[in-house]
Amino acid sequence: MLVTDKHAFRGHLASFALDRLWRLYVETWRIAVPMLDRAGISSDESLDADTMTSVGAKPVSSCR
Question: The organism sits in which domain of life (predicted)?
Fold first, then answer.
């Protein structure tokens, strides 16, 4: 049985989850934007793929 009560393990797991979160956001953005454009759905024109990628690439510590 795997015990996840150790502080070090939980810290590592949280770091991993936060790292995956922004990566999934960027991947979703890259896939969704062309689909939205083809469907005629528009968003804020100031939000382009480069802007969103750079926002997603910021370390979590700088967002707090």
Answer: Bacteria
